[in-house]
Amino acid sequence: MYEKSKELYVRACKALPAGATSNFRIWDEPCTIYIKEAHDGHLVDVDGNEYIDYRLGFGPVILGHGWKSVSERIKKISEEGIITALPNELEIRIAERIKAFTHIDLVRFANSGAEATMHALRVARAYSGKEKAVKFEGQYHGMYDYMLFSTYPPVKSLGIRNNPIKVPAGSGIPGCIHDLVITQPWNDFEILEKTLKRDRDIAAIITEPVMGNCGALLPKEGYLKFLREICDEYGIVLIFDEVKTGFRIAMGGAEEVYGVKPDMKTFAKALGNGYPIAAFGGIEEIMGNIGPEKISHGGTFAGNLIGLTAADATLDELEKGSTWEKLFSTGKSLMKGIREILEDKKISFTMQGFPTMFGFFFTELEHVWELRDTAQCDYPRYEKMQLSLLENGVMPDPDPREPWFLCAAHTEADVKKTLEAMKKAL
Predict the structure, then answer these.
(1) pTM of model > 0.85
(2) Is 68 a catalytic residue?
(3) What are the chain's domains?
(4) Among residues 40, 53, 188, 241, which one is catalytic?
(5) 100-112, pLDDT tens digit by residue?
Protein backbone atom coordinates (compact mmCIF):
# COMPACT_ATOMS: atom_id res chain seq x y z
CA MET A 1 0.00 0.00 0.00
CA TYR A 2 2.93 2.35 0.66
CA GLU A 3 5.80 0.83 -1.35
CA LYS A 4 6.76 3.98 -3.27
CA SER A 5 6.63 6.10 -0.12
CA LYS A 6 8.96 3.66 1.61
CA GLU A 7 11.37 3.77 -1.34
CA LEU A 8 11.37 7.58 -1.33
CA TYR A 9 12.03 7.65 2.40
CA VAL A 10 15.15 5.50 2.00
CA ARG A 11 16.33 7.87 -0.73
CA ALA A 12 15.44 10.95 1.35
CA CYS A 13 17.48 9.80 4.34
CA LYS A 14 20.59 10.07 2.17
CA ALA A 15 19.90 13.75 1.37
CA LEU A 16 17.78 15.15 4.22
CA PRO A 17 18.26 14.80 8.00
CA ALA A 18 15.81 12.11 9.18
CA GLY A 19 14.47 12.02 5.63
CA ALA A 20 12.33 15.17 5.59
CA THR A 21 12.37 18.98 5.79
CA SER A 22 10.35 19.05 9.00
CA ASN A 23 10.42 16.75 12.03
CA PHE A 24 6.63 16.90 12.12
CA ARG A 25 6.29 15.24 8.70
CA ILE A 26 8.06 12.05 9.74
CA TRP A 27 5.79 9.15 10.70
CA ASP A 28 6.71 5.82 12.26
CA GLU A 29 3.47 4.08 11.26
CA PRO A 30 2.56 3.11 8.64
CA CYS A 31 5.56 5.05 7.24
CA THR A 32 6.40 8.59 6.16
CA ILE A 33 3.84 9.16 3.39
CA TYR A 34 4.89 11.14 0.32
CA ILE A 35 2.19 13.16 -1.42
CA LYS A 36 1.89 13.44 -5.18
CA GLU A 37 -1.00 15.88 -5.46
CA ALA A 38 -3.61 17.75 -3.44
CA HIS A 39 -7.00 18.94 -4.65
CA ASP A 40 -10.04 20.38 -2.87
CA GLY A 41 -10.12 18.63 0.54
CA HIS A 42 -8.20 15.55 -0.62
CA LEU A 43 -4.64 14.22 -0.92
CA VAL A 44 -3.22 11.57 -3.25
CA ASP A 45 0.05 9.89 -2.31
CA VAL A 46 2.75 8.52 -4.62
CA ASP A 47 1.24 5.03 -4.33
CA GLY A 48 -2.13 6.28 -5.60
CA ASN A 49 -3.90 6.16 -2.23
CA GLU A 50 -6.42 8.98 -1.79
CA TYR A 51 -7.35 10.52 1.53
CA ILE A 52 -9.83 13.04 2.88
CA ASP A 53 -7.40 15.57 4.31
CA TYR A 54 -8.12 16.83 7.84
CA ARG A 55 -4.56 18.08 8.43
CA LEU A 56 -4.67 20.69 5.64
CA GLY A 57 -1.00 21.54 5.99
CA PHE A 58 -1.45 21.99 9.78
CA GLY A 59 -4.26 24.46 9.16
CA PRO A 60 -3.40 26.92 6.36
CA VAL A 61 -5.80 25.50 3.76
CA ILE A 62 -9.07 27.15 4.73
CA LEU A 63 -10.74 27.08 1.29
CA GLY A 64 -9.30 23.97 -0.33
CA HIS A 65 -6.20 22.77 -2.12
CA GLY A 66 -5.83 24.50 -5.50
CA TRP A 67 -8.84 26.80 -4.91
CA LYS A 68 -9.47 28.21 -8.37
CA SER A 69 -10.05 31.90 -7.62
CA VAL A 70 -6.84 32.01 -5.58
CA SER A 71 -4.63 30.02 -7.95
CA GLU A 72 -5.75 31.97 -11.01
CA ARG A 73 -4.78 35.28 -9.42
CA ILE A 74 -1.44 33.83 -8.33
CA LYS A 75 -0.69 32.74 -11.89
CA LYS A 76 -1.42 36.21 -13.17
CA ILE A 77 0.68 38.09 -10.61
CA SER A 78 3.62 35.68 -10.94
CA GLU A 79 4.08 36.87 -14.52
CA GLU A 80 4.30 40.51 -13.45
CA GLY A 81 7.17 40.32 -10.95
CA ILE A 82 6.84 39.61 -7.26
CA ILE A 83 9.88 41.20 -5.51
CA THR A 84 10.97 44.81 -6.06
CA ALA A 85 12.52 45.95 -2.74
CA LEU A 86 9.96 48.77 -2.76
CA PRO A 87 6.43 49.12 -1.32
CA ASN A 88 3.34 48.24 -3.33
CA GLU A 89 -0.28 49.26 -3.16
CA LEU A 90 -1.48 45.74 -2.41
CA GLU A 91 0.25 45.68 0.99
CA ILE A 92 -1.77 48.76 1.95
CA ARG A 93 -4.98 47.09 0.83
CA ILE A 94 -4.34 43.85 2.76
CA ALA A 95 -3.28 45.79 5.87
CA GLU A 96 -6.51 47.80 5.68
CA ARG A 97 -8.54 44.60 5.34
CA ILE A 98 -6.82 42.92 8.28
CA LYS A 99 -7.41 46.05 10.36
CA ALA A 100 -11.09 46.08 9.47
CA PHE A 101 -11.62 42.40 10.34
CA THR A 102 -9.49 42.18 13.48
CA HIS A 103 -9.68 45.66 15.03
CA ILE A 104 -5.98 46.48 15.22
CA ASP A 105 -4.39 49.81 14.33
CA LEU A 106 -1.23 49.00 12.39
CA VAL A 107 0.07 45.92 10.56
CA ARG A 108 3.44 44.62 9.32
CA PHE A 109 3.92 41.57 7.09
CA ALA A 110 6.17 38.52 7.37
CA ASN A 111 6.32 35.11 5.73
CA SER A 112 5.56 32.59 8.48
CA GLY A 113 3.87 32.37 11.83
CA ALA A 114 7.25 31.91 13.52
CA GLU A 115 8.49 35.18 12.03
CA ALA A 116 5.34 37.00 13.07
CA THR A 117 5.52 35.92 16.72
CA MET A 118 9.28 36.52 16.83
CA HIS A 119 8.89 40.09 15.59
CA ALA A 120 5.92 40.73 17.89
CA LEU A 121 7.91 39.62 20.93
CA ARG A 122 10.85 41.84 20.03
CA VAL A 123 8.60 44.85 19.49
CA ALA A 124 6.93 44.18 22.87
CA ARG A 125 10.30 44.03 24.60
CA ALA A 126 11.50 47.23 22.95
CA TYR A 127 8.26 49.04 23.79
CA SER A 128 8.16 47.94 27.43
CA GLY A 129 11.87 48.19 28.16
CA LYS A 130 11.68 44.74 29.78
CA GLU A 131 13.16 41.44 28.64
CA LYS A 132 11.21 38.42 29.86
CA ALA A 133 8.21 36.71 28.29
CA VAL A 134 5.60 34.29 29.62
CA LYS A 135 4.46 31.37 27.46
CA PHE A 136 2.24 28.43 28.32
CA GLU A 137 3.00 24.73 28.43
CA GLY A 138 2.00 22.87 25.29
CA GLN A 139 1.65 25.99 23.15
CA TYR A 140 3.70 26.41 19.98
CA HIS A 141 4.76 29.82 18.69
CA GLY A 142 7.42 28.93 16.15
CA MET A 143 10.72 27.18 15.66
CA TYR A 144 13.11 29.67 17.27
CA ASP A 145 15.04 29.87 20.53
CA TYR A 146 12.83 32.22 22.55
CA MET A 147 9.67 30.15 22.19
CA LEU A 148 10.91 26.59 21.79
CA PHE A 149 10.20 25.72 25.42
CA SER A 150 7.63 23.24 26.79
CA THR A 151 6.06 22.76 23.37
CA TYR A 152 5.97 18.96 23.24
CA PRO A 153 7.60 17.92 26.53
CA PRO A 154 6.89 14.66 28.35
CA VAL A 155 4.26 15.72 30.86
CA LYS A 156 6.10 13.95 33.71
CA SER A 157 9.06 16.29 33.16
CA LEU A 158 7.09 19.46 33.87
CA GLY A 159 7.42 19.41 37.64
CA ILE A 160 4.72 20.14 40.19
CA ARG A 161 1.92 22.47 39.21
CA ASN A 162 2.80 25.30 41.59
CA ASN A 163 6.48 25.27 40.59
CA PRO A 164 6.54 24.65 36.83
CA ILE A 165 9.89 24.15 35.16
CA LYS A 166 11.00 24.91 31.62
CA VAL A 167 11.77 22.06 29.25
CA PRO A 168 13.52 22.95 25.97
CA ALA A 169 11.96 21.16 23.02
CA GLY A 170 15.44 20.51 21.61
CA SER A 171 19.11 21.20 22.16
CA GLY A 172 21.02 24.23 20.90
CA ILE A 173 19.16 26.93 22.86
CA PRO A 174 21.66 29.14 24.71
CA GLY A 175 21.40 28.79 28.46
CA CYS A 176 20.97 32.53 28.98
CA ILE A 177 17.68 32.44 27.07
CA HIS A 178 16.25 30.04 29.67
CA ASP A 179 16.29 32.94 32.11
CA LEU A 180 14.17 35.10 29.79
CA VAL A 181 11.29 32.67 29.21
CA ILE A 182 8.82 31.79 31.96
CA THR A 183 6.57 28.81 31.23
CA GLN A 184 3.24 28.43 33.01
CA PRO A 185 0.34 25.95 33.03
CA TRP A 186 -2.48 27.28 30.86
CA ASN A 187 -5.91 28.07 32.29
CA ASP A 188 -4.48 28.42 35.81
CA PHE A 189 -5.41 31.82 37.26
CA GLU A 190 -3.65 31.51 40.61
CA ILE A 191 -0.17 30.38 39.53
CA LEU A 192 0.12 33.06 36.87
CA GLU A 193 -0.91 35.83 39.25
CA LYS A 194 1.70 34.70 41.79
CA THR A 195 4.36 34.62 39.07
CA LEU A 196 3.60 38.17 37.92
CA LYS A 197 3.64 39.50 41.47
CA ARG A 198 7.05 37.91 42.01
CA ASP A 199 8.74 38.96 38.73
CA ARG A 200 8.37 42.55 37.48
CA ASP A 201 10.65 42.23 34.41
CA ILE A 202 8.03 40.62 32.16
CA ALA A 203 7.57 42.39 28.84
CA ALA A 204 4.88 40.18 27.30
CA ILE A 205 2.51 37.30 27.75
CA ILE A 206 2.03 35.39 24.52
CA THR A 207 -0.78 32.86 24.21
CA GLU A 208 -2.80 30.93 21.70
CA PRO A 209 -6.33 32.06 22.67
CA VAL A 210 -7.40 28.52 21.79
CA MET A 211 -4.71 25.86 22.21
CA GLY A 212 -4.43 24.83 18.58
CA ASN A 213 -1.24 22.99 19.36
CA CYS A 214 -2.97 20.79 21.93
CA GLY A 215 -6.26 19.51 20.55
CA ALA A 216 -8.01 22.91 20.27
CA LEU A 217 -8.34 23.31 24.04
CA LEU A 218 -10.60 26.19 25.01
CA PRO A 219 -9.90 28.88 27.59
CA LYS A 220 -11.82 28.54 30.83
CA GLU A 221 -14.64 31.03 31.28
CA GLY A 222 -13.11 34.42 32.04
CA TYR A 223 -9.50 33.31 31.49
CA LEU A 224 -8.73 35.55 28.51
CA LYS A 225 -10.40 38.47 30.28
CA PHE A 226 -8.21 37.69 33.31
CA LEU A 227 -5.10 37.83 31.09
CA ARG A 228 -6.22 41.21 29.77
CA GLU A 229 -6.81 42.62 33.26
CA ILE A 230 -3.60 41.29 34.79
CA CYS A 231 -1.51 42.58 31.88
CA ASP A 232 -3.06 46.02 32.37
CA GLU A 233 -2.31 45.85 36.09
CA TYR A 234 1.38 44.99 35.65
CA GLY A 235 2.14 46.91 32.44
CA ILE A 236 2.62 43.79 30.31
CA VAL A 237 1.97 43.51 26.56
CA LEU A 238 -0.67 40.85 25.82
CA ILE A 239 -0.06 39.02 22.53
CA PHE A 240 -2.63 36.68 20.98
CA ASP A 241 -0.92 34.19 18.68
CA GLU A 242 -3.69 33.69 16.13
CA VAL A 243 -1.56 31.86 13.59
CA LYS A 244 -4.04 28.96 13.80
CA THR A 245 -7.23 30.68 15.00
CA GLY A 246 -7.01 33.80 12.82
CA PHE A 247 -9.50 33.75 9.92
CA ARG A 248 -10.42 30.20 10.95
CA ILE A 249 -12.62 30.28 14.06
CA ALA A 250 -14.14 33.59 12.90
CA MET A 251 -13.22 36.41 10.53
CA GLY A 252 -12.27 38.50 13.55
CA GLY A 253 -10.53 35.61 15.26
CA ALA A 254 -10.56 35.13 19.02
CA GLU A 255 -11.46 38.74 19.78
CA GLU A 256 -14.70 38.32 17.86
CA VAL A 257 -15.48 35.05 19.68
CA TYR A 258 -14.42 35.98 23.22
CA GLY A 259 -14.68 39.78 23.25
CA VAL A 260 -11.16 40.32 24.62
CA LYS A 261 -8.77 42.69 22.84
CA PRO A 262 -5.03 41.99 23.15
CA ASP A 263 -2.33 44.61 22.55
CA MET A 264 -0.86 42.65 19.65
CA LYS A 265 -1.91 39.80 17.35
CA THR A 266 -0.12 37.51 14.94
CA PHE A 267 -1.57 35.84 11.84
CA ALA A 268 -0.46 33.35 9.17
CA LYS A 269 -1.83 30.00 7.94
CA ALA A 270 -5.48 30.56 6.87
CA LEU A 271 -4.69 34.13 5.82
CA GLY A 272 -3.28 32.84 2.51
CA ASN A 273 -4.99 29.45 1.96
CA GLY A 274 -1.61 27.74 1.96
CA TYR A 275 0.62 30.39 0.40
CA PRO A 276 3.39 31.74 2.68
CA ILE A 277 2.22 34.96 4.28
CA ALA A 278 2.05 36.19 7.85
CA ALA A 279 1.30 39.42 9.68
CA PHE A 280 1.61 40.95 13.11
CA GLY A 281 -0.09 44.05 14.36
CA GLY A 282 -1.53 45.84 17.31
CA ILE A 283 -2.38 49.13 18.91
CA GLU A 284 -0.73 52.26 17.53
CA GLU A 285 0.94 53.03 20.85
CA ILE A 286 3.10 49.92 20.36
CA MET A 287 3.27 49.39 16.59
CA GLY A 288 3.90 53.08 15.96
CA ASN A 289 7.40 52.60 17.40
CA ILE A 290 8.50 50.55 14.38
CA GLY A 291 10.42 52.52 11.78
CA PRO A 292 13.80 53.94 10.73
CA GLU A 293 15.97 54.77 13.74
CA LYS A 294 13.30 53.23 15.98
CA ILE A 295 12.36 49.52 16.32
CA SER A 296 13.77 47.55 13.41
CA HIS A 297 11.69 45.26 11.24
CA GLY A 298 12.14 44.05 7.69
CA GLY A 299 12.56 41.01 5.46
CA THR A 300 13.46 40.46 1.82
CA PHE A 301 10.30 38.49 1.14
CA ALA A 302 8.01 40.29 3.60
CA GLY A 303 5.10 41.72 1.65
CA ASN A 304 5.91 39.81 -1.54
CA LEU A 305 3.16 39.93 -4.14
CA ILE A 306 2.53 36.17 -4.18
CA GLY A 307 1.61 36.08 -0.50
CA LEU A 308 -0.31 39.34 -0.62
CA THR A 309 -2.30 38.27 -3.68
CA ALA A 310 -3.14 34.96 -2.01
CA ALA A 311 -4.35 36.83 1.07
CA ASP A 312 -6.45 39.21 -1.00
CA ALA A 313 -8.11 36.38 -2.92
CA THR A 314 -8.60 34.28 0.23
CA LEU A 315 -10.20 37.15 2.14
CA ASP A 316 -12.51 37.76 -0.83
CA GLU A 317 -13.79 34.20 -0.49
CA LEU A 318 -14.01 34.29 3.31
CA GLU A 319 -16.02 37.51 3.21
CA LYS A 320 -18.81 35.61 1.52
CA GLY A 321 -21.34 34.48 4.08
CA SER A 322 -21.90 31.31 2.07
CA THR A 323 -18.28 30.22 2.59
CA TRP A 324 -18.55 30.45 6.38
CA GLU A 325 -21.98 28.80 6.36
CA LYS A 326 -20.57 25.82 4.46
CA LEU A 327 -17.46 25.60 6.65
CA PHE A 328 -19.46 25.59 9.86
CA SER A 329 -22.22 23.35 8.55
CA THR A 330 -19.79 20.66 7.40
CA GLY A 331 -17.71 20.93 10.56
CA LYS A 332 -20.74 20.71 12.85
CA SER A 333 -21.96 17.65 10.96
CA LEU A 334 -18.59 15.95 11.38
CA MET A 335 -18.29 16.80 15.09
CA LYS A 336 -21.84 15.62 15.75
CA GLY A 337 -21.29 12.36 13.90
CA ILE A 338 -18.03 11.56 15.69
CA ARG A 339 -19.60 12.39 19.05
CA GLU A 340 -22.57 10.09 18.36
CA ILE A 341 -20.33 7.19 17.32
CA LEU A 342 -18.18 7.50 20.43
CA GLU A 343 -21.22 7.73 22.68
CA ASP A 344 -22.88 4.78 20.94
CA LYS A 345 -19.76 2.66 21.51
CA LYS A 346 -19.60 3.88 25.13
CA ILE A 347 -16.08 5.21 24.72
CA SER A 348 -15.05 7.88 27.23
CA PHE A 349 -13.86 11.05 25.51
CA THR A 350 -13.79 14.84 25.52
CA MET A 351 -14.36 16.94 22.41
CA GLN A 352 -13.54 20.62 22.13
CA GLY A 353 -12.94 23.36 19.61
CA PHE A 354 -14.85 24.86 16.70
CA PRO A 355 -16.41 23.34 13.56
CA THR A 356 -13.43 24.58 11.54
CA MET A 357 -10.82 23.35 14.05
CA PHE A 358 -11.58 20.76 16.73
CA GLY A 359 -10.06 17.87 18.61
CA PHE A 360 -10.96 14.99 20.89
CA PHE A 361 -9.15 12.85 23.44
CA PHE A 362 -9.93 9.37 24.75
CA THR A 363 -10.06 10.02 28.49
CA GLU A 364 -12.15 9.65 31.63
CA LEU A 365 -11.68 13.36 32.36
CA GLU A 366 -14.74 15.57 32.00
CA HIS A 367 -12.58 18.36 30.54
CA VAL A 368 -9.03 18.62 29.19
CA TRP A 369 -7.96 22.16 30.06
CA GLU A 370 -4.19 22.11 29.57
CA LEU A 371 -1.15 20.06 28.58
CA ARG A 372 -0.81 18.34 31.96
CA ASP A 373 -4.31 16.86 31.62
CA THR A 374 -3.23 14.95 28.53
CA ALA A 375 -1.23 12.60 30.77
CA GLN A 376 -4.63 11.04 31.53
CA CYS A 377 -5.53 10.56 27.85
CA ASP A 378 -5.16 7.34 25.84
CA TYR A 379 -2.72 8.21 23.05
CA PRO A 380 -2.10 4.62 21.84
CA ARG A 381 -5.82 4.09 21.23
CA TYR A 382 -6.01 7.30 19.21
CA GLU A 383 -2.99 6.27 17.13
CA LYS A 384 -4.56 2.88 16.37
CA MET A 385 -7.76 4.62 15.31
CA GLN A 386 -5.79 6.94 13.00
CA LEU A 387 -4.02 3.99 11.32
CA SER A 388 -7.36 2.35 10.60
CA LEU A 389 -8.75 5.63 9.25
CA LEU A 390 -5.77 5.91 6.88
CA GLU A 391 -6.48 2.44 5.53
CA ASN A 392 -10.01 3.64 4.78
CA GLY A 393 -9.01 6.88 3.05
CA VAL A 394 -9.26 9.39 5.91
CA MET A 395 -6.24 11.35 7.19
CA PRO A 396 -6.29 13.15 10.53
CA ASP A 397 -2.98 13.65 12.32
CA PRO A 398 -1.75 10.66 14.37
CA ASP A 399 -1.28 12.94 17.39
CA PRO A 400 -4.55 13.93 19.15
CA ARG A 401 -2.92 17.24 20.08
CA GLU A 402 -3.07 18.31 16.43
CA PRO A 403 -6.65 19.40 15.61
CA TRP A 404 -8.88 18.17 12.83
CA PHE A 405 -9.10 21.05 10.34
CA LEU A 406 -11.97 21.69 7.92
CA CYS A 407 -11.91 23.58 4.62
CA ALA A 408 -14.66 24.95 2.40
CA ALA A 409 -14.01 22.20 -0.17
CA HIS A 410 -14.98 19.44 2.26
CA THR A 411 -18.42 18.03 1.48
CA GLU A 412 -21.17 16.14 3.25
CA ALA A 413 -20.05 13.12 1.21
CA ASP A 414 -16.62 13.48 2.82
CA VAL A 415 -18.28 13.60 6.23
CA LYS A 416 -20.32 10.48 5.48
CA LYS A 417 -17.23 8.55 4.33
CA THR A 418 -15.30 9.74 7.38
CA LEU A 419 -17.98 8.59 9.79
CA GLU A 420 -18.21 5.19 8.09
CA ALA A 421 -14.44 4.84 8.44
CA MET A 422 -14.66 5.95 12.07
CA LYS A 423 -17.17 3.20 12.87
CA LYS A 424 -14.83 0.60 11.38
CA ALA A 425 -11.82 2.06 13.18
CA LEU A 426 -13.43 1.98 16.60
Answers:
(1) yes
(2) no
(3) 3-66+321-425 (3.90.1150.10), 68-319 (3.40.640.10)
(4) 241
(5) 999 999 999 999 9
